[in-house]
Amino acid sequence: MTSRDFVPALIIVDVQEDFCPPKGSLAVPNGRSIAEPINSLLAEPKFALRIATQDWHPANHISFANNHNPPKQPFTDSIKISNPLNPSEEPYTTRLWPVHCVQDTAGAALIPELDTSNIDVVVKKGQDSRVEMYSAFYDPFRQPTVSDSGLADTLKERGITHVYVVGLAYDYCVKATAVDAAKEGFVVYVVQDGTKAVGGNEAWEECTKSLEADGVKVVRMEDEEVQRLR
Ligand code: VGL
Ligand code: ZN
C-alpha cells in the first residue's frame, strides 16, 4: 500500500429503534436525527464498502440489568465480568442496560429513515449472551477473544484503507468500533454530524479526547476528509 491509496468504507453503527426516540428502550437524545447526514454519506460515490451494524442480543444477555440476581438498576448499576473462557483473566466493570435490541424484535430493526438500499453488508454483534460487545469487531477479551464478527477480515479482503464511523452511541459502540478499527491499522474518522452520545455534553467532550488519544480523528461533514469522498 502506498500513502496515496484511498479505499474508504463507511460503518454505520447500531442505528436501531431501541437507540432512538420516541420509543427506544435505550433511546439516545436526538438519535433519529442522524439519519439525514448518514444518508448523505451513504450517497458518496467513493465508498468501496457500506456496512451497517446491528446490536443483536439474545434475551438472556449479560448486559441486561434484569438478567441479574438480585435484579440490578439499568444505567446506574454495573457488574464485574471476566472472560467466560478463562475466568481468572481480564476482569473489568461494565455498565448495565435496559433490555434492548433483542434478536428479531421491532426494537432491533434499523430505523426506516435510514436509506438501506446501498448497504453492502450487515454485521450483527453482541450475540453471545456471556459477553458485552460494544465494538462491531469483537468483545473486549483477548485471552482469548470470545466473539469475533469477522468485520476486520471483511475490510481487509476488500482492501479498505480508511474507515468512516457514524451511528449510535458515540460514547459506547461508535467509540469502541472506531478504536478497534484504528488498532486494526485503518485510518479512522468519526463524522460527528452522524452520531449522538448517550451521556450528553460532558460525555461528548470526554469521548472526543479519548478517541483522539487512540488515533481516531473526529471530523465534520464540511471537512476535507469527508469532502474527498465526492
Ligand atoms: C450500545 C449500550 C448497549 C451502543 C449497545 O450501540 O452504543 N450501548 N449496547
Ligand atoms: Zn447492547
Automatic annotation (TrEMBL):
UniProtKB keywords: Hydrolase, Metal-binding, Pyridine nucleotide biosynthesis
Domain Isochorismatase-like intervals: 9-222
One Pfam assignment: Isochorismatase
CDD domains reported for this sequence: nicotinamidase
Pathway(s) the chain acts in: Cofactor biosynthesis; nicotinate biosynthesis; nicotinate from nicotinamide: step 1/1
Enzyme superclass (EC): hydrolase
Keyword Hydrolase: yes
Gene3D superfamilies named in the record: Isochorismatase-like
Biological process terms in GO annotation: pyridine nucleotide biosynthetic process
EC number: 3.5.1.19
GO molecular function terms noted in the UniProt entry: metal ion binding; nicotinamidase activity
Keyword Nucleotide-binding: no
Family designation: Belongs to the isochorismatase family.
Entry-linked PANTHER family: LD05707P (PTHR11080:SF2), PYRAZINAMIDASE/NICOTINAMIDASE (PTHR11080)
Protein name listed in UniProt: nicotinamidase
